[in-house]
């Protein structure tokens, strides 16, 4: 979910130009983009809103890595525009997840708990592996702390999906999925708004805009 990984985490804007670090960022970008597709697809297939909600974090992280990779030599205003696009995308997807959650609650959809659990576990393992890779490349850097905080928050989200799967399995109802998804969707929507606000403030703070255009 977006709130877990905003500008402060997962990748920093001042990523060094070291080829090894850039390669690590590319790997992290590819893995997160793939996991977004897998988790959102599995979420639809399993009828699980919490899987869909959790997938948005992978998209947000992939966007962060992409911005980090592209940011070297990029004007602040373009970075802010990229962040704004990310915020809008995540807010739109968060709205869709919220709508799906309401639908599932209304129709009493029973998610496939096994698929939820398997993909939630895959997400947890993937996040751990990426964190370990970035941690290793980042040796001694102060930003290791942000990698750690972000990974921990991601793991909490993945664990929430696993708990929801367990709850669905145990109760034979979709309510645990709906409850977890509602919390995640709310965090995603507020996270999306925060990202948009921050990006718009950055665009307005720009002393002079070369293109002269406004963001919206
Ligand atoms: Zn994340």
Quick overview of this protein structure:
The protein contains six helices and no strands.
Name a few traits of the molecule.
globular; binds zinc ion; Alpha-lytic protease prodomain-like; 216 residues; single chain; disordered C terminus
Q: Any overview of this molecule?
A:
There is one protein chain. With 216 residues, the chain is mostly helical. The chain has one domain (6-210): Up-down Bundle (Alpha-lytic protease prodomain-like). Helix content is 77%, strand content 0%. The protein has helices at 19-46, 49-70, 76-107, 113-137, 144-171, 175-205. The two termini are 24 Å apart. The model is unreliable at 209-216 (pLDDT under 50). It binds zinc ion. Residues 4-5, 10, 57, 61, 150, 154 line the site of zinc ion. Residues 4-5, 10, 57, 61, 150, 154 line the site of zinc ion (ZN).
Estimated share of beta-strand residues: under 5%
By CATH, the topology is: Alpha-lytic protease prodomain-like
Global shape? globular
Which percent bin holds the helix content? over 70%
> Can you count the helices?
6
Mean pLDDT: 85
Query: C-alpha Rg, in Å?
Result: 18 Å
């Amino acid at each position: 979910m977006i709130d877990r990984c905003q500008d402060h985490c997962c990748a920093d804007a001042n990523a060094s130009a070291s080829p090894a670090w850039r390669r690590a960022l590319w790997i992290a970008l590819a893995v997160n983009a793939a996991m977004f597709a897998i988790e959102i697809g599995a979420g639809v297939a399993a009828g699980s809103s919490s899987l869909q909600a959790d997938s948005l974090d992978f998209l947000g992280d992939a966007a962060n890595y992409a911005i980090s990779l592209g940011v070297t030599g990029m004007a602040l205003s373009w970075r802010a525009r990229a962040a704004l696009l990310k915020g809008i995308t995540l807010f739109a997807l968060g709205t869709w997840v919220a709508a799906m959650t309401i639908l599932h609650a209304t129709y009493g959809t029973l998610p496939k708990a096994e698929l939820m659990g398997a993909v939630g576990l895959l997400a947890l393992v993937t996040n751990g592996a990426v964190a370990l890779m970035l941690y290793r490349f980042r040796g001694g850097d102060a930003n290791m702390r942000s990698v750690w905080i972000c990974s921990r928050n991601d793991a909490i989200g993945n664990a929430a999906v696993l708990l929801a799967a367990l709850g669905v399995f145990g109760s034979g109802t979709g309510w645990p999925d709906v409850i977890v998804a509602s919390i995640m969707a709310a965090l995603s929507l507020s996270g999306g708004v925060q990202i948009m606000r921050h990006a718009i403030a950055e665009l307005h703070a720009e002393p002079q805009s070369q293109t002269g255009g406004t963001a919206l």
